[in-house]
Specification:
Among the domains are: 195 residues, Heat Shock Protein 90 (2-Layer Sandwich); 121 residues, Ribosomal Protein S5, domain 2; 79 residues, Rossmann fold; 136 residues, Four Helix Bundle (Hemerythrin (Met), subunit A). It contains 29 helices and 24 strands. One of its GO terms (cellular component) is endoplasmic reticulum lumen.
């Protein structure tokens, strides 16, 4: 009755209003549709009682009118673990407290006084009304902030959240809240966000799971002073989150290392002294009748009221996180489990995956700071998508335990932006702006030490992996411990290997350190990753260069004609199959005094060939003739090759020109410059195999009749085939196809002048459109307009 009475009252107000108000109409509709998700009088009363608030329009409500079923919500809650969202809300509260503490550095009055100045997080449980509340005394939100941060969320609706989760969408927070805030609707029918900012009045944002929401000035809740309180009106199936034990476990598991105290309004039993009952007192008196007068006199002097101890239940604020900040403790005092918990709290990642490794250290001297760096278990899905456009930082900067910012991009270079952690400096000044702090000279020193420690951490991860280094000299206990880290560096390389390569390109100072971290497959690695040090350790005697080949895949490279002599002579060749490898090798010119040699380019040296001089003389007529025959193909020269065994010829590029793989990469660029491509392409050289029967036969034919057009066409076809096999794109595919068809005709003993059979043309009688219009018109089923 109360529900319908309230709805009727609101409807009456709408009728009496001279100007129609769609926002009020929304409130009525929201109440009438509330049966889809359950009955909760308090929800209806509050949404309906805010007629002058800012609310969703009718289109939004219509778009989200179909509520998600309880079964879907329950399954989603189990799948995506709402408990992690509770921890996110606590983490958001911590961020808000960090912000107000930072503001007080320049404005002492911003903190306020009394309870408002207490920087803490409070959690309350209301079992009777099924409400879970999380409150902070942080910076708070203005009305505009509530609209910006939460209005968009409500408009998208709960179904959008489920879709985001199912498609692996980004759940990063937006402002104080974000897409992750959707998951509160997995367990809550109704959400209130009460917030007070120093520069605005206290407002309340409220929303049901159907997509409707309202924002209005708060006149019924307790004044916050400053900060934000989130009230989740939980569903019946989520009542476990109203148990103190459950909340304590969640905070212990996910939020133990939050930098501010977290209090729970908890019940506890205490011993209390109360007056004893009269019957108990009389029994005691009877038991003492035989005492002497002297004893009675002594007892009278010390006589006190009779009491007893009983258990009473009281409520008080209980501190849930009393751990000291991890980075301030000695590394010897922190367990692996504590590091893992702290990482999850820092990264807002509440899965089961532990960080791959971490580095906990302190720096002393002119610049003093403590730092804790983590390598995440997985790379963010967008790590390289906007690498050069977005300024991303996963490091939080503290100055003397005061959070300053997580947007200092100068603390680590871009290629190490995947690292997460904390830097706490005792040297940097507190009372300066963020912009001035970024220009502080101490930041350069901090950055230099952070880079070195980060690279040492990654190098150590490789050294501790038994797949990377031999453990023959290790003890049994050491071998057992290392087995747990088996395959860790391969996992790191698969996730973050591209970052190491980008570091070699961008960071000339640390290029050699980064090169030691490189991993790749090779012609001798049997599918395993090897390092440059490992490659050098098994180089052949007399080998001066590090051989490598670039391409689109390992399978393609294994079949490359450029490897024929190298494989036959037992040389190892590195396979580079990542597009960034082409750019990498433009910067990595040498390693440990060994030059890099692309085996598809000029300059390959495989020892001295005593017959080479005689072969050049023997094939001089052919190479000169072939060079003239390919005048229009852009070939610089034709030479005898020392790299081929089974293939008649290949096309190589000049030492400083683009390889065939690089040409393809550049041609695929949307905004590539054709004129620059022609310049960077460099010279092309046709190298022929003097021992191959096709080449020997061509030499003999040229000696007999060098003017033969058929011979020139054959030479051009052999060149085009070599060009394609060497990885280049054909400049004229039509010409190549025509040459192939001519060769097929010749092999089938067909005349070159054989014509294509003409198709017989059958004339169809003309039909007058006017006469045939009705007959040709297709039949359509007739539908009633109303049925459609």
């Amino acid at each position: 009755m109360r529900k319908w009475a309230l709805s009727c009252a609101l409807l009456l107000v709408l009728l009496l209003t001279t100007l129609p108000d769609p926002a009020k109409k929304l409130q009525v509709n929201a109440e009438e549709s509330s049966d889809e998700v359950g009955d909760f009088p308090k929800v209806e009363e509050k949404l309906g009682a805010v007629p002058h608030g800012l609310s969703t329009d009718s289109e939004v409500v219509q778009r989200e009118s179909e509520s998600i079923s309880r079964k879907t919500l329950r399954n989603s809650a189990e799948k995506f673990e709402f408990q992690a969202e509770v921890s996110r809300l606590i983490s958001n509260a911590s961020d808000a407290l960090d912000k107000i503490r930072f503001l007080t550095l320049t404005d002492k009055e911003a903190l306020g006084e009394g309870d408002t100045a207490k920087l803490e997080i409070q959690i309350k449980l209301d079992k009777e009304n099924k409400i879970l509340s999380i409150r902070d005394r942080g910076v708070g939100m203005t009305k505009e902030d509530l609209i910006k941060n939460l209005g968009t969320i409500a408009k998208s609706g709960t179904s959008a959240f489920v879709e985001k989760m199912q498609t692996g969408g980004d759940l990063n927070l937006i402002g104080q809240f974000g897409v992750g805030f959707y998951s509160v609707y997995l367990v809550a029918d109704y959400v209130e966000v009460v917030s007070k900012h120093n520069d605005d009045k206290q407002y309340v944002w409220e929303s049901k799971a159907d997509g409707s929401f309202a924002i209005s000035e708060d006149t019924w809740n307790e004044p916050l002073g400053r900060g934000t309180e989130i009230k989740l009106h939980l569903r019946d199936e989520a009542k476990e989150y109203l148990e103190e034990g459950k909340l304590k476990d969640l905070v212990k598991k996910y939020s133990e290392f939050i930098n501010f105290p977290i209090y729970l309004w908890a019940t506890k039993e205490v011993d209390v002294e109360v007056p004893a009952d009269e019957e108990e007192s009389s029994e005691e008196e009877e038991s003492t009748t035989e005492r002497t007068e002297e004893e009675e006199t002594e007892d009278d002097e010390e006589k006190k009221p009779k009491t007893k101890t009983v258990k009473e239940t009281t409520t008080e604020w209980e501190l849930l996180n009393d751990m000291k900040a991890v980075w301030l403790r000695s590394p010897k005092e922190v367990t692996e489990e504590e590091y893992a918990k702290f990482y999850h709290s820092l990264a807002k990642d509440f899965g089961d995956d532990k960080p791959m490794t971490w580095s906990h250290f302190s720096a002393e001297g002119d610049v003093e700071f403590k730092a804790l760096l983590f390598v995440p278990p997985k790379a963010p899905h967008d790590l390289y998508e906007s690498y050069y456009n977005a300024n991303k930082s996963n490091l939080k900067l503290y100055v003397r335990r005061v959070f300053i910012s997580d947007e200092f991009d100068d603390l680590l270079p871009k290629y190490l932006s995947f690292l997460m952690g904390i830097v706490d400096s005792d040297t940097l000044p507190l009372n300066v702006s963020r912009e001035m702090l970024q220009q502080h000279s101490s930041l350069k020193t901090i950055k230099k030490k952070l880079i070195r420690k980060a690279l040492d951490m990654i190098r150590k991860l490789a050294e501790e992996d038994p797949d990377e280094y031999s453990n023959k000299e290790k003890t049994d206990d050491e071998k057992s411990a290392m087995e747990e880290k088996k395959g860790q560096y391969a996992k790191f390389w698969n996730e973050f290997g591209k970052s190491v390569k980008l570091g070699i390109i961008e960071d000339a100072t640390n290029r050699n350190r980064l090169a030691k971290l490189l991993r790749f497959e090779s012609s001798k690695s049997d599918g395993k990753l090897v390092s440059l040090d490992e490659y050098i350790s098994r180089m052949k005697s007399g080998q001066k260069d590090i051989f490598y080949l670039t391409g689109s895949s390992k399978e393609q490279l294994e079949k490359s004609p450029f490897l024929e002599q190298l494989t036959k002579k037992n040389y190892e060749v590195i396979y580079f199959t990542d597009p960034v490898d082409e750019y990498l090798m433009q910067y990595l010119m040498d390693y440990e005094d060994k030059k890099f040699q692309n085996v598809s380019k000029e300059g390959l040296k495989l020892g001295k060939d005593s017959k080479l001089k005689d072969l050049k003389e023997s094939f001089k007529e052919l190479t000169d003739w072939w060079k003239k025959a390919l005048d229009t193909e852009g070939i610089d020269s034709v030479k005898i090759s020392n790299r081929l065994h089974n293939t008649p010829c290949v096309v190589v590029t000049s030492k400083y020109g683009w390889s065939s793989n690089m040409e393809k990469i550049m041609q695929a660029q949307t905004l590539s410059d054709a004129s620059k491509q022609a310049y960077m392409r460099g010279k092309r050289v046709l190298e022929i195999n003097p021992r191959h029967p096709i080449i020997k036969e061509l030499r003999d034919k040229v000696a007999q009749d060098s003017d033969s057009e058929g011979l020139k066409q054959t030479a051009r076809l052999v060149y085009q085939t070599a060009l394609m096999e060497s990885g280049f794109n054909l400049p004229d595919p039509k010409d190549f196809a025509s040459s192939i068809y001519r060769s097929v005709q010749k092999s089938l003993d067909l005349s070159p002048d054989a014509a294509v059979e003409e198709e017989e043309e059958v004339e169809e009688p003309e039909v007058d459109e006017k006469e045939s219009g009705k007959a040709e018109e297709p039949e359509h089923e007739q539908y009633d307009k109303d049925e459609l």
